[in-house]
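Listing 4. Sequential folding, example run.
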Amino acid sequence: MAGGSCDFGVVVTTGDEFAVQTTGLTIFQNRKTVVPIPGWGLSDLIFARTRAAVPAGASVLRIPYNSAKFPPRDESKDTLKDRLFRDPNAELAGYMREAVKGTNCRHYIQILNAISPIGSSSYTVRGFGILNQDVVLGRRIFLHALAFIRIFDGRDFAIVRQSSALINLDHSLAVQRFLGKLVGGPYRELPAESFPTRPEDAASNPALRDGVRAMLAESLDKTLPLLLGRRPAARPSDIEQR
């Protein structure tokens, strides 16, 4: 359907990677290793759940994503002046326009990684991963699957709606954090022995794979229909995304 018209174009930009992360009371305890997980099929799962959420009869086009076309932003140039005069919406529109070049859809849906603070600390988690929170009274292990959804108008690439993919839709993320949630988005605590001895072992761990897939599917199934207007619109999310 490339070059023709469609109702929804879907771009999955999460990438096939899993973070094995440790945070502690000192900088010497903080470690993070990103492990490739192409065999987990997360991109295929995201597209399948997105296609299932669109209204019946709507045409859906999966648009391949090439991360090499979009080099990482140079944070050294992110000065106060730059932040004051940047237009984030225009930047996002330009980014998506380039990503879907050659297609013609009424709307575009982007699924990307979300970023969340860890409790009240200055540390964050991103996308899919496992966290070892090494604290005074012992360590706690958390598996997370954080995704963010944006819907663009296909004509001017303005953002129509956007939200974190959430399982608990009863409270905003700000309220959830106030109530003591460690991470803004889907996560679950695991036994201490669940944390990989070697980071690369995570890629072949079926329990970690299935846990991420289950949280990701549930959050997309609950949030996408809201954003697509099949139920009342979701409240805006205050989680970060990238």
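-- end of first protein; second protein begins --
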Amino acid sequence: MAFFLSFGHCLGMCGGFVMAYSVKLAKKSKFEAFYYSLSFHISRVFAYVLLGFIAGYFGSIFAFSSQIMGYVKFAIGLFLVVLGVALIKRGELLKFIENDKIWKKFFAKPTKFAMQESSFGSFVLLGFLNGFLPCGVVYTFLAMAIMSGSAIKGAFIMVIFGISTIPSMLGLSFVTNLLNLKLKQIMLYISAILIIAFGIYNAYLGFEATNG
């Protein structure tokens, strides 16, 4: 699901970052450009892991009671259904979910600084900050991290998510030409339907737990 979403959503959401730093890599050797680019994405994945650890720890607070965890799963399940619909419909609902006010307040200035620099450190910093960009897809897997009820499991979920997005993001210039818009939309729809199904399933599990 993460791999499909990376083509259907992530390319449009985070593609601007990738294209911006790709311009800076034009004068570097192929090996150096690849190394800088890979470092950007590893740093981005590290941000996801940090978020997953926090989300999983937050979920562990409720894990002491199966009934309370049931309420959490039910609420998150409903959220995933709404998110899946938003990914398909796009428009105002998705804009509301991916609100960037907090990101602008805390991350916009350091991101602007990193964009203006061309050092290796600036690429690593930019990748890390990219990981905090408000994104419905990231929220999907953070929701899974919360439901895992474990900081370690939450971090592992985000590792898998992050790694699954690297192929499309690392080869952005290639895959953009390889995949047409219709195919990207199909991949997005499949992923969104899986998110909705996963949300319904967890809402059901939550309902069962609260009434068990």
